[in-house]
Amino acid sequence: MKLIESQAKAIFAEHGIPVPTGRVAHTPEEARAIAQEIGGRVVVKAQVPIGGRGKAGGIQLADDPEGAYHQASRILGMDVRGYKVERVLVEQAADIVQEFYLGITVDRDRQANVVILSAAGGMDIEEIAEKHPEKVAKLWLNAGLGLRDFHIRQLAVQAGVAPELLKQLAPIMKTVYQILLSHDATLVEINPLARLGDGRLVALDGKMEIDDNALFRQEKLAALKEDEGDHPLELEARRRGLAYVKLDGYVGVIGNGAGLVMTTLDMIQRSGGKAANFLDIGGGARAEVVRNALEVVLSDPDVKSVLINVFGGITRCDEVAQGLLDVMRSMDVKVPVVVRLVGTREEEGRRLLEGTELTPAATFQEAAQKAVAAAQG
Amino acid sequence: MSILVDKNTRLIVQGITGREGQFHTSQMLAYGTQVVGGVTPGKGGQEVLGVPVFDTVRQAVDATGANASIIFVPAAFAAEAILEAADNGVELIVCITEGIPVQDMIEAVQYVRQRGVRLIGPNCPGLITAGQALVGILPGRIFTPGPVGLVSRSGTLTYEVVNELTARGIGQSTCVGIGGDPIIGTRFIDVLRMFEEDPQTEVVVMIGEIGGSDEEEAAEYIKQMKTPVVSFISGRTAPEGKRMGHAGAIISGGRGTAQSKVAALEAAGVPVAETISDIVDKVAERLGRA
After folding, report:
1. Is residue A259 a contact partner of residue B157, using CB atoms and an 8 Å limit?
2. How far is CA A26 from the centre of its chain?
3. Which of A132, A168, A169, B196 is the most exposed place for a label (fewest CB within 10 A)?
């Protein structure tokens, strides 16, 4: 789950990391009022969970409240790479002397959190790493040790940060690590962490990503979760506890097991078709779950046929077949449904489906071919 | 010979009194695994299917001499269960649980490594040595002893391959499900090393998917292996940025694509099968049973 700048900054502020004075506005009038409150030059920033706002014109300076109104009315409603801007952050403009990059993120390969510090902040970290790799200091953390003072010193020396700045920088870095852990974040990023004219270090931007697996214990964050960017069917599937991803094809797919389903999508492509979705119903294939899955897939107007791919290991194929027939008969299914059932008692399972409204198939390829043909037929 | 588990494995089940714990304990017992104890805090003194239940891993290990543990504990507490097992010196820990927060797993994986014990998973089906021991939720009935080792990030997809291998008279040594999470205790390269040393395993099947770079790391190692490896990668049609079921099955910033894994494997001279039947054909070829 991604947090937008204003949400990340609110968390920073809560924990004592300096952020610019500012507030979120939903209308140009609000923006003007906030600019008035702040006084002087302000920056109006689109609030969207994606990078590239600046390039899209979503970050603009304004010299006075009228200017803020004007910029806000331009930016609100703007499309930034597929996201509609519904909020702007109006902040006191900063006189930046130097920009640092500070981030802590999960490094999957090293199986550790990595702290990244650079005195070449302000650009995309990938750009910095590419253009100035020697300026990017990294440190992988041991969970038991955490982020210690000597680590911070090491990073600062490696990044070429002036020692006088450590007094401000060290507490900020420790706080960022604490925030990462206490919020179950996979990323906490401040870019730029700017040194202003008056010598202060201030977080001019903020980004956080929260581990979806941890939302059960992050109630406040879970409540912030917005559905923008998610397809309505994905939201519906999530509500029903299904792992579902909308794709741009026309063969609906239901299977038990993520790898099995991904392979099914690949096989459909091999057969010259395109899958309309990914849907993993997990272990087994209980009737209620299958019904939920079918309902979601069939409510997709793009779906011209459905491929149900189940491996019956502990669950027996004849049980799955019977369950499928029961479910199908209680629903109004208007598209062809191909069922591939393999595993324990697969012969019995397939025999049960013969002559019914369900088309049986034995191999992945056969199932994919039949489903694609049925969709195109 | 097989790897990791065999008829001598002495297993405790953490979370034995829960629904999953009980069901799979019965499956494992039926398969012939030595399930010697279970742990559910507060239920010490009870029995599940004749297996004594303890309040702590410490008590269970002291009473039974267990050297392995399987964890069926809900996501909120599963990492803690891993830490408890590792802290008490359990040599092999298999965590089935899906949905464990990633920061919990970073701590657990690092601790397990420090203690020198082996963690398989989480979010995995466990492992099985055909004809000897089932430590997981894999369907025992599809396996038969033989020369093929399997290591996979997926569950049912792997069963598909095993099912077809068995149907063709090609048996298996050990099948290890390493799990679908981004941070796991044992990666492809770890299992490949073990199979390389195992005299029973003559061919290895490696089943990968999008996300991370374990397959690429494995490809490098496979170059030096004597045991032939046949691979398969799912998720060739997965879009960027979406979790495809498994928390670890995600293409991030263009990295972790199926295409990059296939390229790395092919560059290392590892055959990448196109379909499940193709996997089995390639295995049969390498066994001289085409």
Report:
1. yes
2. 23
3. A132
Nearest-Cα distance to chain A for B106, in Å, is 6
Residue A311's nearest CA partner among A275, A350, A340, A279 is: A340
Contact B180 A113 (CB under 8 A): no
Residue A230 has pLDDT above 80, yes or no: no
| Residue A209 a catalytic site member | no
Among A305, A187, A210, A309, smallest CA distance to A254 is for: A309
Any CB–CB contact under 8 A between A50 and chain B?
no
Domain ranges for chain A = 1-20+95-224, 21-93, 232-376
Beta carbons of B150 and B2 less than 8 angstroms apart: no
pLDDT at B290: 63
Buried b vs exposed e over B27-43: b needs ≥16 C-beta within 10 Å? bbbebebbbbbbbbbee
Q: Which residues of B146-184 are buried (b: 16+ CB within 10 A; e: fewer)?
A: bbbbbbbbbbbbbbbbbbbbbeeebbbbbbbbbbbbbbb
Q: Which of B120, B153, B187 is the last residue of a domain?
A: B120
Q: Are residues B48 and B112 in the same domain?
A: yes
Q: Which of A69, A83, A101, A250 is catalytic?
A: A101
Judge if pTM exceeds 0.80.
yes
Residues B146, B253 share a domain: yes
CATH for the stretch A1-20+95-224: 3.30.470.20
pLDDT of residue B281: 97
Chain length of chain A: 377
DSSP conformation class of B239: P
Same domain, B150 and B274: yes
Nearest to A45 by CA among A9, A1, A99, A13: A9
Query: Using CA atoms, how far apart are residues A180 and B278, in angstroms rounded to an integer?
Result: 45
Cα A360 to Cα A351: distance, rounded to the nearest angstrom: 8
Calculate how close chain A gets to B242, using CA atoms only, in Å: 7
